[in-house]
Design goal:
The protein is an alpha/beta fold. 46% of the residues lie in helices and 9% in strands. The strands form two sheets. The protein has a six-stranded mixed sheet with strand order 5-2-1-6-7-8, with helices on both faces. The protein has a two-stranded antiparallel ribbon with strand order 3-4. Helix 8 crosses helix 9.
Length: 302
């Protein structure tokens, strides 16, 4: 089980009231919400291994170099020495180090890679996995990893942190009209995604993108059809795709997750008991983690 950790703690932050606070009054709604969600995932799915994948760089320079608008609207502060600072609620940012400390003390593996997003860490670990993989994320970008043959599926929280929807190839066909995870990536780059600053092909929405992919197989087939008078493209589609060739030449590298990220070895086995019990007890007292932490520890011990 691979967690898109930032995606999940954002959802926890907005799904749990900010009135959930530590003894000193600091909001811990994201911390406690995330712990409760992990407890539920462990109890419901019983993964052998679990990795909390982190965004060491939420907006990698190599992606920005290809598409400068990539996540540009989410930059709170540009930096020259490292990743730009992402815009985030004032009461969420201080909770992230607490989340990291608690996961480390529990003994849940946490992994990121400099210069890469959590998506890329997830893509690399999913490719390496010998058995089935559940990717847990609130970000549709990772639908591209769905692969029935390898047992890779996405658990996608629909409302808050409740029961996640299971996204497999059947779900992709039903919801998006595409046949596979890689086809979803092609659909996403054709359609564009304002939340990530991806312009897409102007005038080509989700349904049109799905029709083009069904007719021509994949992005390469769609681009080949632009130069083929017998391909069945309408004049308007041909003009739109031709005008977007520069974008379409670089978009695949930006949209598709990297799956060969150099990652250190990590022990991903779920612990039956806390790795650092005394430190965890201190964190629990300081931040008032109460029932949320107890539910996670109980789920791990089952």
């Amino acid at each position: 089980m691979l967690l898109d950790t930032a995606s999940l703690y954002y959802r926890a932050y907005f799904g749990v009231p900010e009135s959930v606070r530590a003894p000193d009054g600091t909001p811990v709604n994201a911390v406690r919400g995330l712990l409760d969600f992990i407890a539920r995932l462990v109890r419901d799915h019983r993964p052998d291994d679990l990795v909390a994948c982190m965004d060491n760089d939420w907006r990698p320079a190599w992606r920005v170099e290809l598409i400068p608008s990539y996540k540009a609207h989410r930059v709170a502060e540009e930096t020259s020495a490292g990743p730009d600072v992402e815009e985030a609620p004032d009461t969420l940012s201080p909770q992230v180090p607490v989340i990291e400390e608690v996961l480390d003390a529990v003994g849940i593996a946490r992994l990121g890679a400099d210069g890469y997003e959590a998506d890329d860490v997830i893509g690399t670990l999913a490719r390496r996995a010998a058995g089935p993989v559940d990717v847990v994320t609130g970000d549709r970008d990772l639908f591209q990893l769905v692969d029935d043959a390898r047992g890779v599926r996405v658990l996608y929280p629909v409302r808050g942190m409740g029961d996640p929807a299971v996204v497999d190839e059947a779900a992709l066909r039903e919801r998006y009209g595409v046949e596979s995870g890689p086809a979803y990536a092609d659909l996403a780059l054709l359609r564009g995604d304002p939340s990530d600053g991806l312009p897409g092909v102007p005038g080509v929405g989700e349904k049109t993108a799905a029709r083009l992919l069904r007719a021509h197989g994949d992005l390469a087939g769609v681009l080949a059809a632009v130069g083929d008078p017998s391909s069945g493209l309408t004049p308007a589609q041909r003009r739109k795709l031709e005008a977007a060739r520069e974008y379409l030449a670089v978009a695949p590298k930006v949209v598709r997750v990297a799956d060969e990220v150099p990652l250190p070895e990590v022990d991903a086995a779920l612990p039956a008991e806390p790795l650092h019990a005394r430190e965890l007890e201190e964190l629990a007292d300081r931040w008032g983690l109460g029932g949320s932490l107890r539910r996670l520890l109980d789920a791990l011990a089952e």
